[in-house]
Amino acid sequence: MIGNGNLCRALVKANACLASENNERVTIFNYQVPSKQLLNRLLDQLSQPATWTNTDACQECGKNFSITVRTHHCRHCGRALCSKCSDQEVPIVKFGENKPVRVCRVCFDVLKTGAS
């Protein structure tokens, strides 16, 4: 990801889904980088709800979805998550969501405190 900040920001402006996975199931959320500042800034710049991802496992903890483990989506970044990994709620005023909606922990922190 080093040196790709401008590319990432351009993709966000073009409404690319940050939760998209490559062939190894790597996303910007689980890519190993020294700092999560770029991710936080990109999430802060989202101007409309992301397209929901379709996957067979939680994109945070890796737990497989099943009849007993339901799929939930972060209303901010669009990641597919289990209930444990999407247990936060916050209004997303920039999307016109004035009532609290389900978000992941990463987006919750960004929406509550901004991109630090």
Automatic annotation (TrEMBL):
SMART domains (alphabetical): FYVE (SM00064)
PROSITE patterns for the chain: ZF_FYVE
Entry keyword set: Metal-binding, Zinc, Zinc-finger
Protein name as annotated: Ankyrin repeat and FYVE domain-containing protein
Single Gene Ontology BP annotation: protein targeting to vacuole
Xref: InterPro entries: Znf_FYVE (IPR000306), Znf_FYVE-rel (IPR017455), Znf_FYVE_PHD (IPR011011), Znf_RING/FYVE/PHD (IPR013083)
Cellular component GO terms, alphabetical: ESCRT-0 complex
Residue ranges occupied by any FYVE-type domain in the UniProt entry: 52-112
Organism name: Anoplophora glabripennis (Asian longhorn beetle)
Pfam families the UniProt entry points to: FYVE
GO MF terms, alphabetically ordered: phosphatidylinositol-3-phosphate binding; ubiquitin binding; zinc ion binding
